[in-house]
Structure formats: C-alpha cells, structure tokens
Amino acid sequence: MLLALESSCDETAAAICNADGELLASAIASQIEIHRPFGGVVPEVASRNHILHVKPLVEQVLAEAGLKLVDMQAFAATTGPGLVSSLLIGTSMAKALSVAENKPFLAMNHMEGHLLSPFMAGNGPPRACVALIVSGGHTMLLHMQGVGEYRLLGKTRDDAAGEAFDKIAKMIGLPYPGGPEIDKLAAQGRPDAYSFPRSFLDGQSLEFSFSGLKTAVLYELPKLDLTQPQVLADVCASVQEAILEVLVEKLVLATKQCGEKLVAVSGGVSCNRGLRAKLSARCEKEGLTLLLARPELCTDNAGMIAYAAMQRFQLGQTSPLEADVDPNLSLVV
Ligand code: KG4
Ligand code: ZN
Description:
Nucleotidyltransferase, domain 5, five-stranded mixed β-sheet, 11 helices, binds 5'-O-[(R)-(carboxyoxy)(hydroxy)phosphoryl]adenosine, binds zinc ion
C-alpha cells in the first residue's frame, strides 16, 4: 500500500493505492470556488489552502481505507511541474510521513500521473501506446514503450488546449475554469456555425498551436451578440470543434508514424464529452484501441499519482529525501 499527495496547482488531494494498482481511497479538496472571483489560480492563496487541507485529507483517506500510517509501504508526492509554493506543501508532508514511518519517499511527476491514468481501473498494465496529454498547462503527444520510457512526439508551441478553452471562455464572459463551461454550452450549439482556424502547421507535424484560434475569436467578438443563448452556444460549439479536430487528427497521425494501435488520452481536457465522443468514433474507424480515464481521474487528483508511484515502486525505484520540487519538471529528458 502506498499513500500519495498531489498539490501542484489548486487541488489538494490524497489517495491510497494497493499493489494491484487499485485505489482504496481518494479525496480532493477543491479550491475552484476560492479562485473563481480572480478568474484564475492565485498561487499564494492556493498554497495557504493546501496547508489547511493536507493533514485532514491524509486522515480522511486512511479512515476511508480502514488503514493506518504504519500500513503504508511508501509515501509519494507530486514534486513538479506546478506552482512551487503549492508543490512544497504536499511534498513536505509526504517527506515528513516517510521520515516518521521510516518508509521510502517517491518524488512524482504530475504529467506521468496524467499519462498513466488511462491504465487505471483494470486497463493496465501500462504498455506501448501513443499518448495524448491535454491539460491546463500542457498539450503533448508521446510515444510510450513502458513506465519511464517516454519519447516526445510533439507539444504545443504556445497555449495548451486547456488554456485555450479557459482563455476563450474568459473572453466570452464564462466563469473560470472555462473548459467545463464551454463543454456544457457546446452541447446546445452548432459546431459548424463559425469557421475558426485549425492550426495543423505542416501536414506531418505533431506540434500544436492554439494562440491563432484565440486571436480569431477575439476578432469575431465585436460582431457577436453573446447575450443571445444560441449565439453563445454556437460560438462554444465552434471553438470546441476547432480544438478537438486538431487533437484527434494529430493523435491519429502519430499512431501512423509510430505504428501503434493503442492510444491513451489523459488530462483535464479529456473529460470533455465532445472529445470523448470524437475519439471513440475516430479510433473505431481507424481500428485503434482507445483508453480513457474515468472523468474524475482526468482532472487533477492524487489517485493517478498513487497509481504512477506504485508502478515506479514496483520497479524498485524510490527517491532521496533531498529530491526537491521543480516547477518546470520535464517528463522527457
Ligand atoms: O489536468 P488538469 O485538471 O490540470 C492541469 O494539470 O492543468 O486540467 C485542467 C484543465 C483546465 O484548463 C480545464 O478548463 C480543462 O482542463 N477542462 C476541460 C474540461 N474539464 C476540465 N476542458 C474542456 N472540457 C472539459 N469538460
Ligand atoms: Zn494536471
């Protein structure tokens, strides 16, 4: 059994995972409501709230699993990438628990948590695939051979997909975080109502760019009456379609370039209902097997960190207590 903490951004989370990679307990203290008035995450506020929540969350997951600290074989925490003052809270707590219980510590990469999350809940073990990670801070295509063997195929040159959702949502007056809001409204809109640009770069490129879309929406704004619900829904559906089409087509292109038939899609944006539907249809057409995490494991949580840490622990890997937080920690060397 292993206990993991996640505090890289605005969610404080704790989870316990067993040797089979099953989650015995998982809890999240969300700060979305606290940051909403600011239209984004305020690092100092996030850090203070992590301090308030981290100990009660550890107690909560232990109680939920009916276990004690002494039952844990290791303690893990996200050490990057993320907000440094936030990362420090979960990391310090996990290190303190390691010292107190005299058990190993594992320093985990948040993006590896996302990457491996589609293999949870019976889809494991993690194995060769093309992976697409679409979160608030990252958009990456990877060729994965196994745990720790990741090759970067392409990433975004500017905004991440989640960031594009959030920034465009803000421009059209939707609350933070904008991704789920656009998802909701898009269901009532027409995806072909507005033709926003799709940035494919050159035909074979696996890199992404979403800043042009943001600019295109900005130029369209003065012509739109967003007080009309149908106009707003149509804009949401058209923006979403422009983002999703690029994500899905580049993923399919990557499988062809790598000769893989398995795809794993993760990160907060992989909750998006339009993306999930489009991926299923396109993967079926291409004869690809699609792995998606359950929606509650797509956005930030400690379950995915516990699962990834268990994979590493079973390979005999642990980290020194000196392992520091790194806001820019990379998944690929
Ligand atoms: O993975 P995540 O929880 O945090 C990061 O590591 O960044 O991803 C958060 C991002 C935000 O940009 C949020 O707007 C987006 O995921 N997101 C969505 C949806 N749910 C969350 N984007 C589109 N549709 C959704 N349903
Ligand atoms: Zn994340």
